[in-house]
Amino acid sequence: MSIRRSAGILLHVTSLPGPYGVGTFGTSAIRFVEALAHAGVRYWQVLPLGHPEASDSPYQCFSAFAGNPILIDPDVLAATGLVTSMEAEDCRIDADPRTATFGGAADGRASLLRKACSRMDGETRAKVDAFAADQSDWVQDYALFMAIREHFGGLQWWVWPDEGLRRHEAGALESFAAEHADDCFYHLFVQYEFSRQWTALKTRANGLGVLLFGDMPIYVARNSADVWGHTALFEMDEQLAPLRVAGVPPDYFATDGQLWGNPLYDWEAAARDGYTWWLSRIGHDLRQFDAVRIDHFRGFEAYWAVDAEETTARDGTWVDGPGMALFSRVAALFREARIIAEDLGLLTERTRAFLEETGYPGMRVMQFGFDGNPVNEHLPHMYPHNCVAYIGTHDNDTLSGWLAQEESDTVRLSAQYCRAPEGPMSRVCAAWIQTLWASVADLAVATPQDLLALDGTRRMNV
Fold first, then answer.
1. Which of its termini does the chain have fewer beta carbons within 10 Å around, N or C?
2. Residue 124 burial (CB count, 10 A)
3. Which domains does the chain have, with CATH numbers?
4. 273 is catalytic
């Protein structure tokens, strides 16, 4: 499905204002989509909504499918009657409202959700059971994973002391599930409530003409229900350790490359399985969102593989990915899908040909355009229609912060290009945004930080 010419805003849910430490699916989210609709903004882009590990990074999560419990709004939960308004208010956090407080939010939300789960009636329990049946391809494994992890004090799954549980053996899992049924059910309930609140928000947004634009990391964390439950789909040895891990090779900005450390997929095994896990994952995200960006999309054509014992990404090798063998299946199953390919970084002619064959729009980032090359593909006059264009993404500083750090020649060149006036940063940012939105890109996305001309202390994803 094509993306007709539109404007978008990139803001993760956790950046919304509110009293609960981070933004939620509650009143502030509803007001935000109402404001977008009033302004004629068609897309709200967010970062991954997954349940993150201790780092709080949405790109390193316990599951490729499960939602982050801290996004559940206490007031919306209280409206069900499972908790009181006073109990919801106990989740309020007295902290700087300009920053997210992840740890306190997670603790408060877990306590509130435990209370709600313990009080549910038969009707709610039946709804949770129906949700679990509908999401059977992932949610039972996730609930078991989280319950076992808690049982063993938060240990990573590959060091769990019970070998049967560690190796995902059916008998061991059945015994644990029977003995810890309440703990497993709690995690099913949390995911049900996450889905219920998100669906209500999406319904409201879509009713106002606002489409929700999600983000899918290509790789999953080693300490995830996905790797634990599907070790055959990853490059693992007999001791359940990765043989090779993900990264990107050295470049001008990183002389040692980037060593991400995620387990690599065994694409031959995935092909033999008919790409079942991948189709389930992509289908899940396409149902959850109206459009989905797939991160590091070039990794499906060829990816950088590094031996697991290496300490840098310098000594890796390029390995062919599945290419159209996977995405022809995606196209056949999800004919109306809006998929955006994150195609930033090193692209070969073969990679570009693969991207063109998929037909997916790629990305352009204005901040990357001012190197003195007049035909740099990130300059707005070089954009194709079939792309999503940004001033900067979640990986970039705010425009104000970026300009403060750049060389004077870059600042001068960008000011000339955007016809940015001298004076307040608000006028400079407005000139950049006007230049971006005047391009032929089908979708142009800005951040609230740049709309408000905020400096680098207000960037997200740090």
1. C
2. 18
3. 1-194+207-214 (3.20.20.80), 230-360 (no CATH), 364-462 (no CATH)
4. no
